[in-house]
Design brief:
By secondary structure, the chain is α/β, with parallel strands linked by helices. The protein has a single domain, classed as 3-Layer(aba) Sandwich (Rossmann fold), CATH 3.40.50. 42% of the residues lie in helices and 16% in strands. The chain has helices at residues 24-39, 53-58, 60-63, 80-87, 105-121, 128-145, 158-169, 176-182, 207-210; strands at residues 3-8, 46-49, 70-71, 151-156, 188-194, 197-205.
Length: 218
């Protein structure tokens, strides 16, 4: 049975001028991710990634060895600053910006969560349906392209993973917020592809991060 491993990118550089590059911890998480997959004997036949630097950087342990990655921007994260700008009363950014107060990742999350809820609830009045449909189309196309027994690894972000989980479980779109909040950096969510469609079989696997204290959420 084909499988798709949805990998959340390793830790970015929160609170710096460029969040979209891996932190020192993020680079270690990427190495632990590869080591963990290899230790479990998981052979990945295809690698796919969104176009963001933190997503592509998470696959660097493989690309350094010459393994090719297929880029698909439909796996990019939602635009957090656009969502916050449209649905929050307080400015916030994961990056250091003029006019935006410095805050902890916890404080940032407290602003993001209600803004995400409002974004999803706005429906066709906003950009949520396009984001969701792009992610689900990317998932369906990848699933349809896999041969028997093949495994694809997709490096993406918390938002797309949360959207996939909500859809496959048949829960309301607003469940995106709960899934997104707890998605672990370099964690693995597994989707099995069968004749009847795709099925979520595991969420947020992270044993490969526990031994070295590498578990982070942002």
């Amino acid at each position: 049975m084909p499988a798709i491993l949805l990998i959340r990118h390793a830790q970015g550089s929160f609170g710096t001028a460029d969040y979209d590059v891996l932190s020192e911890t993020g680079a270690k998480q990427a190495l632990a991710l590869r080591a963990g997959l290899e230790a479990r004997g998981i052979e990945v036949d295809r690698f796919v990634s969104g176009s963001l630097k933190r997503q592509l950087g998470t696959l660097k342990p493989w690309t350094d060895d010459g393994i090719e990655v297929e880029a698909d921007p439909r796996w990019d994260e939602y635009d957090s600053e656009a969502v916050i700008g449209a649905h929050a009363t307080i400015p916030a950014s994961p990056e250091r910006r003029e006019g935006v107060p410095e805050m902890s990742s916890r404080d940032f999350q407290a602003i993001v969560d209600p803004a995400l809820s409002a974004w999803v609830e706005a429906g066709a009045a906003g950009t949520w349906p396009t984001f969701r449909d792009d992610v689900l189309d990317a998932l369906r196309e990848l699933a349809a392209s896999l041969g028997s027994g093949e495994t694809a690894a997709v490096c993406t972000s918390g938002g797309p993973i949360a959207a996939v989980c909500a859809h496959l479980l048949g829960v309301p779109d607003t469940a995106l917020v709960a899934f997104n909040r707890v998605t672990i950096n370099a964690g693995i969510t597994k989707v099995a592809v069968g004749r009847g469609g795709s099925t979520l079989v595991s969420f947020n696997e992270h044993a490969h991060l526990d031994a070295d204290g590498l578990l982070t959420y942002r």
